[in-house]
Write a structure and sequence with these properties.
It is a single chain. 42% of the residues lie in helices and 17% in strands. It is α+β, with helices and mostly antiparallel strands. The termini are far apart. It binds zinc ion. Zinc ion is lined by residues 72, 74-75, 77, 89, 91-92, 94.
Length: 126
Amino acid sequence: MNQNSPNQLQFNFSGVGCWLTVIAGAWLLGAIGLGWLVKSFFVLVGLILIAPIVLFGVFRWWLQRTIVEGPCPACNFTLTGLKGTESVCPSCGTVVKAAQGQFQRVAAEGSIDVEAVDVEAQQIED
Ligand SMILES: [Zn+2]
């Protein structure tokens, strides 16, 4: 068998032929008045390609607005949490709440949070 005979000549349509088929199909649909179908198809493909990028950007923007990072009010251990949620400090076990860009201690109902101030003996004598 002679493998170079014209009867067995085959073209490889996997690369350029595939795109030619798509373009020819699009032209044919446009020629018979279904151009809107082709346009909507390309719009759909564009949306599918753009949607993940847009969603990723929105997700990052949401994370920057929602995540609070700061020191624990009791032990200065660096905490990370979602805004408005309560969590427990893994270092000292204090219940803290993320609000206004920082962590605040959650006091029990009716308790008064006081801040201790160091006073030197000489100041009292004056
Ligand atoms: Zn702590």
